[in-house]
Amino acid sequence: MRYILAFDVGTTAVKAILINCETKEMRSAGAPCELTQLHPGWAEQDADQMWNAVCQASRACVAADDVDVSEIGGIVISAPWKHVIALNENGEPIRKSIIWMDGRAIEQAKRLNETMGRFVEHAQGYWTRLMWLKENEPEVWAQAKHIVGINDYFKYRATGNLCTECSDDFIHSPNAKLQQLYDEVLEKVGLAEDKDKFPPCIACTDCAGYLTQEGAAQLGLRPGMPMFGGFGDLPAVYLGSGCRAEGTAHIYLGTSSWFGELLSDRIDNYSSSWFTADDKNQGALFGLTTGGRAYEWVINRFYKEERERLGDGIYALLDREMAQVAPGCDGLIVTHWLNGEPPPLAKNAKSVFFNVTEQHQRQHFVRAMLESICYSHRRSLEKYIAQHGCPPKQISVVGGGACSDVWMQMMADILKMPVRVPDNPRYVGTMGSYYCALIGLGLKQDFSDLSRQDGGKIFTPNAANAEVYDKMFGIYMDLYPALKNLYDRLNGVY
Questions:
Q1: How many CB atoms lie within 10 A of CB 492?
Q2: What is d(CA 85, CA 145) in angstroms, rounded to the nearest whole number?
Q3: What span, in angstroms and rounded, lies between the C-alpha atoms of 69 and 31?
Q4: Are 146 and 87 in contact (CB under 8 A)?
Q5: Distance between CA 237 and CA 291 in Å, rounded?
Q6: Inter-residue contact 29 to 14 (CB < 8 Å)
Q7: Closest CA to 12 of 339, 247, 367
């Protein structure tokens, strides 16, 4: 065995990465994924189109003459959590997947929380979207033999086996306390009778099956290759970023964004989003619906011609121009809430250009957008400190956004603590999947058997910028409360 083939599936793109197990050299290929937003707050994707993107990226990744696919020891995928995909008895999708960023289930969330007597989920929650589908499309629900996530669907298309894993399973849990919660929720909202629609759970390092003739042909691989359980993109990034123990935290900057940490158990009234990493760890997640997608939006609006001319070279141009803008953007705040945000904001809260003057140029708007993402993560960091009594020992920043030194200096200045950017920050999710396959193949004992990641860059906060960022952060935090009633009047409550 010479290689492992790992896939990092994001909301808008797939990356296939062939990793040399000896040298750790990587070759990669990608393909886009389509996102459909028919109404405000809705978000859907075509599961078959996403599978085709996985296959396209796979074939491109292994197409080189010097790659012998017989030397690939296994395949593993990380993919976004909480997709709701209804399959008929032939394993075919009945409708588009209702994905993690979809917030249509407003009434269901309200009813769930009232029924439970406490906050359980918001409108982007998994159970609330199941409720919406069952109540609003009963013909689809009745026809659905299986309800699966997107990684489950990929494994099924590749191997013919249906199974899920614990980070994307909200029906079964290895934790007795969580299983009691799951059972209570399902019973009270009328989903208990449907538990047989959901696939069984395996560990992320277990073999989910072997590539079928059809699956292998579509992927450009050999039949019989083992495919491991894999996991959602969240634990893949957690593990790949080095966030493998309590006291560490990380920030992910992709299409979405989040601040996250691992804990031995869940804490009441702390994070509104959790996932089960394994039988020993729970992931606390403070998520942003729109992270790097807001960056791309502002580039396309203010630098469209330059983007068409420079391609990916646009980011170097933006770094140079943003570096010339003073911290705080001369009083300008641009919020990243293009698609609304989960609590403590709201899905009906949209982006604001606040305090614009004639002196502001387009580079101010781009920098202000990135500063606002940093402000949201500072809010999460302050909640972390209030809960634990101290800051984390380390914060790693990963994802495509971490490739910008200018943005990373903003992050350190606004958080007021050092941040570490590991080598190859775009590929930390891939490396998390790679580690998963190593354990599944018996080459590593468990995740604690992995070497620490001490490389990369450290960005240290500039104390001279603390005062202006303290002021701007305070104003940013006051914006949504000041505008809430206006959002409700303009957009309705959802």
A1: 11
A2: 11
A3: 20
A4: yes
A5: 15
A6: no
A7: 339
- Asked if 37 and 98 count as a contact pair (C-beta separation under 8 A), the reply is no
pLDDT tens-digit series, residues 155-192: 999 999 999 999 999 999 988 899 999 999 999 999 99
Query: How far is residue 154's CA from residue 413's CA, in Å, rounded to a whole number?
Result: 41
pLDDT mean across residues, the chain:
94
pLDDT tens across 305-354, in order? 999 999 999 999 999 999 999 999 999 999 999 999 988 999 899 999 99
The C-alpha R_g of the chain, in whole angstroms, comes to 22
**What's the longest Cα–Cα distance across the chain?**
64
Nearest CA to 407 out of 431, 415, 306 is that of 415
Read off the pTM.
0.84
- CB of 59 closer than 8 Å to CB of 219: yes
Q: Per-residue DSSP letters for 192-216?
A: GGGGGGSPPEE-TTSEEEE--HHHH
Q: Give dist(CA 296, CA 301) in Å, integer.
A: 9
